[in-house]
Sequence to fold (302 residues):
Amino acid sequence: MPEPIDDASPFSPYRSDGKLYGFICVVTGATQPISQAIVTELAAHGAASIYACNPTTDGSSDDLASNLNTTYPNTKIIPYPLHTSDEQSTLALIDDVLNTWGRLDVWVCSSGLLGPPSIDMTTPADLQKCFEANSLAPFFALKYAPPAMGKLCSQGNYPNAAVKDRGYGSIIVVSSVASTYGGCWGPCYTMSSHAALGVVHAGVAVLKGTGVRINCVSPGQIDVGVDLKGFDMRGMKSQLPPANLQSAESQREHIGLERAGMPTEVARVAGFLASGFSSYMTGANMVVDGGASVMCPLTVPI
Fold:
């Protein structure tokens, strides 16, 4: 008989209340609305520290850290400059985390890039940038985060501290429904999002015996507070297309829940995958699209 999951210890990774006490987390793309919502969600789950990463730390990262450090004083939010597609930058972050805390528990890749909407507008350089943001960053997480997640440590002297007496961790890749479908935007988006899901699927075998899980979150139409007026149609600064690219009438017709989603609703799924609630899940693709991907417009009842 397999051993039962032990959730009796107050700091078990499989706590029955889903709390992340003691956990040290990394979240990339920290200036994007979905990433900021994920940082907030992990703080609400009781993580000890969250590295909010972006290529350059700016006012939005500092404001997020300041606000959350006030709201969740036992969680330390650290704005951190990270070039996710740079191998040495990734290794330097892991070294900093281990030198400071002695452990790493959750890594969220949420620094995706949309890319141009058509193949005519797409250059080889655009395609390379999208692959770097959407699939190379998860590859670095898969390659380098698990050994750090296997480090054990005693209980530290800081709020929400906890013993880590066995190797475990969770890698979460935030992609999009373009990870399984074509035509969601442009070819860069579809190709690199498919590759991101490929990293997750490949990771299951890579991570056998480590206690580390890897899963994907694939949002559909999410309202990230950007409209078409200020949107860069080349998509080289955005993670997702504007929700109002699809009219409210079209959303009611083609989305099961008849509306665009919110960043918080994506973040709650990431919080679930970070916690012990998802202890038997790895290699999964959690589609967060309000049911749009299973709707057939030709058979929707009038």
